[in-house]
Amino acid sequence: MVAMGLALELKGLPFAKGHGTGNDFVIVPDPDGEIDLSANVVAALCDRRRGLGGDGLLRVIRTAAHPEVAPRADEAEWFMDYRNADGSLAEMCGNGVRVFARYLVESGLAAGPSIHILTRTGLVVAEVGAESIAVDMPPPEVSGQATARVSGVDFAGTVATCGNPNLVCWVDDPDRLDLVQAPVLDQATFPAGANVEFVARTGDMHVRMRVVERGVGETLSCGSGACAAAAVALRDAGRGAGVVTVDVPGGRLTVTLDVGRCVLTGPGVIVASGTALL
């Protein structure tokens, strides 16, 4: 059971649940920064058996109310305070920011369709449509090589940073991999861990991907990972720009890359709201 102290902290907490291509999140509205979201509280809320369940948590807080980013309140009214399921802080989440934008519009906190959102990586702009949401993501930086060890086998990969660290590994068939255990990475290259994408080509500028996210495990989708995989696919094809379709277990994402710009497009859905009774 959730420890008594945590139960007292969580009881009566308003929340919503949302997902982007199956990458799901607990959403905690805290406009004025009144909630103390410790790592233990986040982990309890994201627990799939004893909590609400989620790959991560999105705290919806005004930029001016968060001491970490308050000086940047003139850039965006809202700050996406994103936490991994284990309670650790994360810089960016491409699926999460789409769900965050959808929540802002559906809850009446922002009018849309264009919404400026501050993240730990910087400012992003979301264009909220009826079915899909397009987000200007940090342009991926592709550099260097590293390996991921899975079940005793080393997979060569390309390091790609898209607000957070990623390692993109080409494989023949991602479905054949056993990803129950997190891949082992080189600590010197990834001292804070990384998302690892296992990617196969299915056509011209069309790939499919499985991903293991740091602090979470395998997820049905990863937006920043899709951007990283698209950047590597374009580079390996000798192209400086283009549109890459990325199929993940939870659905389909589209990544448009050009000089200095990366646009991630896909669904963002709010599926429930309520009050925690843990």
Detailed description of the structure:
The chain is an alpha+beta fold and 278 residues long. Helices cover 15% and strands 44% of the residues. It has an 18-stranded mixed beta sheet that branches. Strand 9 and strand 10 form a beta hairpin. The longest helix is centred in the C-terminal third of the chain and has 14 residues, at 223-236. It is globular. Mean pLDDT is 93; it is low at 1-5.
| CATH topology grouping of the largest domain | Diaminopimelate Epimerase, Chain A, domain 1
Helix content: 10-25%
The CATH architecture of the largest domain can be named as Roll
Q: What is the CA–CA distance across the termini?
A: 9 Å
**Estimated share of beta-strand residues:** 35-45%
Determine the number of helices (DSSP H or I, runs of at least 4 residues). Answer: 4
Record field, number of beta strands: 18
What is the topological layout?
Blueprint: H1 4-10, E1 14-20, E2 23-29, H2 39-46, E3 56-62, E4 78-84, H3 94-106, E5 114-118, E6 123-128, E7 132-137, E8 141-150, E9 153-161, E10 165-170, E11 184-185, E12 195-203, E13 206-213, E14 217-219, H4 223-236, E15 242-248, E16 251-258, E17 261-267, E18 269-275
